[in-house]
Specification:
Elements (H helix, E strand, L loop, with lengths): L7 H23 L3 E2 L5 E4 L14 E5 L11 E5 L7 E9 L4 E4 L10 E2 L4 E9 L3 H7 L2 H51 L1
Antiparallel strand pairs: 1-2, 2-3, 3-8, 4-5, 4-8, 5-6, 6-7
Helix pairs in contact: 1-2, 2-3
Length: 192
Amino acid sequence: MIVEMPNPKKLAKIAAYAIIATFLMIFLVFYRPIQLWGDTLYEPVYTGSMEPAIPVGSIAVIKPTNPETLKINDIICFRIESESAITVTHRIIDITNEGFITKGDANEDPDQWIVRKENVVGKVIAVIPYIGYLGHFVRTPAGFILLIVIPATILILLEIKNITKEIKRKAKNEQISSLTHKICLNNNLGQL
């Protein structure tokens, strides 16, 4: 019996999609910044302080950056306090010896704090508009069922179908092999 080995490229592609989908689902369910690959972070935008540059519900793509290279008008993600898990994404409007003065584009006044260089998470390099709203929706019962339960059920059923198909194919091949073996034995006995 010959067992066909799966195509390694196909397996790698499937594994990559599965990993990305897993991290995306974690992000959508918990609505927290995640790191998919490399050092790039994907962070949801909760408030309208950076509109219109970054609309509410968008995902900010953040690249860790040496604070020494930042300049006025760069949009940065930072922690207000070193140990805080809470991050803010605002634009640099001034640079001092103590750090960065920031302001949300939609805010009247600059932020009340100075962002120290060690509190900079990174620079915003791209914005994916409105996809963050999916995170809000997936946390509702309807969203969870529509975006998690139903797709997962479909994937499981498709995999069961593939496994069943493979089992039937192997059984058929074994049956053909057994039948071929019996025919060969009968032919050999008939020649004796």
